């Protein structure tokens, strides 16, 4: 063996270029940097947050996946069949959940936490709550391992991680509700103030005046006696005692209209919907001419990007081309109509075969429609370039 053979790299080896800046990106363990409890409480308590999140979750879970041919030769899950991937992603992810429940759990985590973690054991898919997942960063590659609830460890080949957009971390995403957190807290405070107003704890309804100065013990005893007799929690007025000749003016001139906050609440609801990516007009009542364009924009700019992020992660893990099946989405029907005209033109001009067009619009192929069509209304040089000129008609010979 010559001396230079030691410097030659074997042909079947693969060169792996590592990132030298990887150790400086972030700390070694990355847990959820979001206080998802605030978002969960807002989801449970505020109507607009509940409705907006449910719209995103239900609409995203409705879109199926079309499993194409294998595109990655070095798939993580080697040996899995295309039919098995189609079953996991469109029918039965595991033995305990249907595909709708499974998808809705994933999207709920995506909206509230900004991350999705899916465990694949080689046969089934399982959802892992994102708030209890910890990412262990690697100083050489990207991620070393995942830990659930600080007790169960998973390798990178077992976890499918979908990350929402974020600026401070390359590992974890940020909840879409975070920019609207201040607005949600403000709406909660408005509701609490209204509750206190109805319970007569914010504005006194009755004033008892005394020319003499009373002790604190006598005041508290009189208020307790009055409260026990007239029950403010059942609609009675809580009294206010003024002694020593103190006078109060305009104590009951507060109108409920000033405490309703209706216009402020409506504006805050629009802010929350915009943070979620939902056009506010979609939740307004009445017939509006702009409703259909806004629904189409809602799907194109909000729903489909979320579904594509999930499909890209699943595509990398399973190694098959995954595309969104939007044939049954009513809001995208105008786009499908334009698509049908587009494929009709391609078939009638002989560019693609009818079966190729049927496969493109998710129809089964038909036997005998694999050949290209020659346009019947094109004659002369357009049919055969060797002829040239206008075709010869009868009587001109």
In short:
This protein has 397 residues and is α+β, with helices and mostly antiparallel strands.
Strand order of the main beta sheet, please?
A: 1-5-6-7
State the helical fraction.
25-40%
- Silhouette: extended
The total count of strands amounts to: 11
Q: Helix segment count?
A: 10
Gap from first CA to last CA:
82 Å
How is this structure best described in words?
This protein is an alpha+beta fold and 397 residues long. It has helices at residues 36-45, 47-61, 82-90, 99-112, 181-198, 216-230, 262-276, 291-318, 333-348, 354-360; strands at residues 29-30, 64-70, 115-120, 125-128, 133-137, 143-148, 152-154, 159-163, 206-209, 239-242, 320-325. The chain has a 4-stranded antiparallel beta sheet with strand order 1-5-6-7, with no helix packed on it. Helix 5 runs antiparallel to helix 7. 20% of the residues are buried. Residues 3-13 have low confidence and may be disordered.
How are the SSEs placed, and which strands pair?
Layout: E1 29-30, H1 36-45, H2 47-61, E2 64-70, H3 82-90, H4 99-112, E3 115-120, E4 125-128, E5 133-137, E6 143-148, E7 152-154, E8 159-163, H5 181-198, E9 206-209, H6 216-230, E10 239-242, H7 262-276, H8 291-318, E11 320-325, H9 333-348, H10 354-360
Parallel strand pairs: 9-10
Antiparallel strand pairs: 1-5, 2-11, 3-4, 3-8, 5-6, 6-7
Helix pairs in contact: 1-2, 1-5, 2-4, 2-7, 2-8, 5-7
